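Milestone 3.1: sequence recovery, worked example.
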């Protein structure tokens, strides 16, 4: 099982957390209509056992059921193997919409006491999902992705030309991006380019476009200042009360929406 292999390798590198791509549990090119909730629960239980054995936080993309409806999610599993958070993708692609229901929250969760957030794949095009989370305290953004493009489009996205650097810089946070790589099904391709980007926009690590593997980097969280987002909470002054109300709602909705999944 590739997930087990990469959890083991990440632990060998003494990583605190490992991020897997969108729908890594099943693969994105999957007939989700055939999926049973019991299969997902069993897979996540197995991954939890891996996390506990290696004492590592695991963030894994997976379909998840809630009241018989299917969501495209990121599940956070802590070092004890316990599921601590589940975020459902809000902004769905036409492919997603064939199978999944939209989520209804901005993500906020903690890993080893550090406030984090996530977006999933297509959601990189919606900067408010990141900005609001950073205003609410997030210092690391985890982004699972599953590239499904024509080869020409895939090539244009390579070598970091995907907007990720701008999102890290404008929010002054770390950006961790895990993507599928190479040839996918039905003649589609994924650009790879899994990467870890610093708050100043530098690539700390950049994977290639051909091979599955693990990249790691040490994050100096003192550099994740969130400075620009914090300043936006103050100026212009007429927005202050509105921002405060939104952040309160973001925190409430993030907590309430993370429960009641069939996990």
């Amino acid at each position: 099982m590739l997930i087990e292999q990469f959890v083991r390798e990440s632990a060998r590198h003494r990583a605190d957390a490992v991020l897997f791509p969108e729908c890594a549990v099943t693969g994105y090119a999957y007939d989700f209509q055939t999926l049973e909730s019991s299969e997902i629960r069993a897979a996540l239980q197995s991954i939890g056992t891996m996390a506990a054995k290696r004492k590592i936080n695991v963030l894994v993309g997976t379909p998840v059921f809630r009241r018989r409806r299917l969501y495209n999610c990121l599940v956070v599993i802590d070092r004890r193997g316990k599921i601590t958070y589940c975020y459902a993708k809000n902004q769905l692609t036409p492919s997603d919409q064939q199978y999944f229901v939209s989520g209804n929250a901005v993500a906020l969760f903690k890993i080893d006491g550090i406030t984090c957030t996530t977006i999933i794949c297509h959601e990189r095009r919606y900067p408010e999902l990141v900005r609001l989370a950073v205003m609410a305290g997030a210092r690391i953004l985890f982004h699972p992705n599953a590239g499904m493009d024509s080869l020409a489009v895939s090539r244009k996205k390579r070598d970091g030309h995907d907007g990720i650097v701008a999102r890290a810089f404008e929010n002054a946070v770390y950006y961790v991006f895990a993507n599928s790589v190479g040839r996918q099904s039905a003649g589609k391709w994924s650009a790879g380019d899994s990467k870890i980007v610093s708050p100043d926009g530098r690539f700390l690590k950049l994977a290639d476009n051909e091979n599955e593997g693990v990249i790691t980097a040490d994050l100096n969280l003192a550099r994740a200042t969130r400075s620009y987002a914090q300043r936006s909470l103050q100026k212009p002054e007429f927005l202050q009360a509105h921002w405060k109300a939104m952040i309160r709602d973001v925190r409430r909705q993030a907590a309430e929406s993370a429960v009641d999944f069939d996990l």
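DSSP finds eight helices and twelve strands in the chain. The two ends are 21 Å apart (CA to CA).
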